[in-house]
Amino acid sequence: MNKDIIAKAIKEITKELELSEPSGFMLSYDFNDIWIDISLEKNENGEWDNKIYTISVGKQKAKNFIDYISELTPEIYEDNDRVYVQLTEEEWHSIQDFILDII
Fold first, then answer.
1. Long-range contacts made by residues 5-12, C-beta under 8 angstroms, separation at least 24?
2. What letter would DSSP give residue 64?
3. Where are the beta strands (DSSP E) in 19-81?
4. pLDDT tens digits, one per residue of 13-23
5. CATH of 23-102, one of 3.30.200, 3.30.70, 3.40.50, 1.10.287
């Protein structure tokens, strides 16, 4: 991850939106019943770091998804309609092909 490019892009976005500099930043993607949020936080040095992926699937697809990622032991929570899974960048890279297949 090129932190300089990310820092510059986030700075430009906040400038265009006339917002102050954020302490966190998130991109969201909606693929029908699968939602993917990618968030970054600033570390103690003021650099964008700690990339977290949150994948949300409808409960109909959740069982297959949870079974596939069970060896990762990610943080999993749910509401009445959806299951949410938080993954580190390393965990995301280990299952991203599977995610792209079910999209």
1. 6/40, 6/48, 7/47, 7/48, 10/48
2. H
3. 24-31, 34-42, 48-58, 75-78
4. 999 999 998 98
5. 3.30.200
Tokens 């959740």 appear where? 62
Q: Tell me which residue of 38, 39, 95 sits closest to 103, measured CA to CA.
A: 95
Nearest to 33 by CA among 82, 88, 86: 82
Helix, strand or coil for residue 65? helix
Token pair in block for residue 92:
């995301």
**54 in Cβ contact with 86 (< 8 Å):** yes
Under a CB-based contact definition with an 8 Å cutoff, are residues 40 and 49 in contact? yes
Global pTM reads 0.81
Q: What residue has token string 């299951």? A: 83
Cβ-based burial of 56 (10 A; exposed 0-12, middle 13-18, buried ≥19): buried
